[in-house]
Design brief:
Length: about 240
């Protein structure tokens, strides 16, 4: 991920110590988010100690990377990172992700996210026209569904086991794989989604299937097929164009 090359514990500790009592717009949003019942009720966040760890990483990151627009999705990412690594490691992985791979996602206005949502919509239209037409007939907004997926790197919508497997793929292949995975999520359940009669039913069915997606390899396989259809170089060219 590039985090290993940046890992300097003293910098993380210095940021913690220096900005412990400093407030900003981002830290105000962080404090507000950490009172969110959804976050506190998650199995990975039970107890004040878990929440305090998340808070330290988020506040340090906010002060160290003031150009990154803080959003609630970042707290979701940190929540999962702290399951598998220490605070300092989570801080540097987060720094690497948003400096190297997803800087445009959390820039002001989330320009990169909406550009990739448009790309997902175009890929569905070109490669899965029946599903795309059905979504259009139901007035399904791709950005309304996919922006949260991309901002949280799927931590907002999928079980932990699947999220961690996807992150492995993202860290290995880079940003472009997110687009393949997002398209893959629609395609994986198209046989059910095509039978929906309204936008609300479509979203309910999709969210239900995502919540139960405990076997990530099926998604990885579908996403790999999407990659064969639209390689990373093509995605990069479409994004640039």
């Amino acid at each position: 991920s590039g985090a290993f090359n940046r890992f300097q514990t003293s910098i993380y500790k210095h940021t913690l110590d220096t900005f412990a009592d400093t407030s900003s717009l981002s830290t105000a949003h962080i404090d507000e988010d950490l009172e969110d019942a959804f976050l506190r009720d998650h199995p990975f966040c039970i107890g004040d100690t878990a929440v305090a760890r998340i808070c330290r990483v988020l506040r340090s990151f906010a002060h160290a990377q003031p150009h990154v627009a803080y959003m609630r999705s970042i707290s979701r990412i940190v929540r999962y990172l702290l399951v598998v690594c220490a605070e300092e490691e989570a801080f540097w992985i987060l720094t690497s992700l948003f400096e190297d791979k997803f800087a445009s996602y959390h820039s002001r206005g989330c320009v990169g996210v909406f550009a990739d949502c448009a790309l997902i919509q175009d890929l569905l239209a070109s490669s899965h026209s029946k599903l795309s037409a059905h979504m259009k007939s139901l007035e399904i907004s791709v950005p309304a569904i996919c922006s949260g997926w991309l901002l949280s790197l799927f931590a907002d919508c999928l079980p932990a086991e699947t999220v961690f497997r996807i992150w492995d793929v993202i860290l290995y292949h880079g940003k472009n794989v997110l687009v393949n995975i997002a398209v893959g999520l629609f395609v994986l359940f198209d046989y059910k989604l095509l039978n929906t009669k309204s936008a609300s039913e479509f979203i309910e069915v999709l969210n239900g299937e995502l919540a139960r997606l405990l076997e990530p390899e099926a998604l990885i396989k579908v996403s790999d097929l999407e990659f064969r259809e639209t390689p990373f170089d093509t995605i990069s060219a479409m994004r640039a164009g």
